[in-house]
Design brief:
five-stranded parallel beta sheet, 231 residues
């Protein structure tokens, strides 16, 4: 996997001073050891984020309004713990193995591909010191010449959905995003809408509608984990 030289050097020095331990099994050496990473890859499930059914393809026959969905697993599995450590405990080294897992479950799309991270609230970026979802997106796209990361969506409102009811989330999501007027939609490009956790799906559905209305015809969802509880 091609990494930025400066980033690789910094991670290497940091590991020598204070080596990571695997956040899944505790083995010293990496934030996620190869065995645990491979276990997650092998055991990922095609879960419909909407009806929660296990499906054999990225398209759910029960939920035709959704585009193809690529999901690592349920939030209650290992991936949920990794997301928590990555976002809230500042284990930034997890961005690389998480990106590799995402790349493993995604197909090789024909033509140009644009990963569109759902915009993170500005306050959360300041608190964490980085945009957690955009960082993963850039690592996913790095090896492919025809893949890029585009901020097609921008925050119209800095609303916080944690703890909100489903109806509140739906109402907030409809007003939360708007299209970035500086970027043009290309109907021949595959757009990967990318977020970490699907709870009610309000944010992804709102973003999907915005891109579709703007002329995007090839849209897929990439989600790290699906929450079966609405909190």
């Amino acid at each position: 996997m091609g990494l930025n030289v400066k980033n690789t050097t910094l991670i290497g020095i940091s590991d020598l001073i204070a080596p990571h331990s695997c956040k899944s099994c505790g083995t010293v050496g990496k934030a996620l050891c190869d065995n645990c990473k491979n276990y997650i890859m092998i055991n990922h499930q095609n879960i419909c984020p909407n009806c929660k059914a296990i499906k054999t393809t990225p398209i759910c026959p029960k939920c035709p309004s959704l585009p193809p969905c690529f999901i690592i697993n349920d939030r209650s599995t290992i991936i949920g713990n990794l997301i928590h450590d990555y976002k809230y405990n500042s284990i930034r080294a997890l961005s690389y193995p998480i990106a590799e897992i995402c790349r493993d479950i995604l197909p090789i799309f024909v033509g140009n591909v644009s990963i569109v991270p759902l915009p993170t609230i500005s306050r959360h970026i300041r608190e964490r010191g980085f945009d957690h979802i955009t960082k993963i997106a850039r690592i996913i796209a790095h090896p492919y010449q025809n893949w890029k990361v585009e901020p097609l969506l921008i925050r119209a409102r800095q609303t916080v959905q944690v703890g909100a009811s489903e109806s509140e989330r739906l109402s907030q999501a409809k007003k939360a995003y708007q299209l970035n007027s500086k970027i043009t939609i290309n109907p021949d490009t595959t757009y990967i809408l990318f977020d970490d956790v699907w709870t009610t799906g309000a944010s992804m559905k709102a973003a999907h509608k915005i891109l579709s209305n703007a002329g995007a015809t090839k849209i897929v969802f990439l989600i790290l984990a699906v929450s079966r509880t609405k909190n």
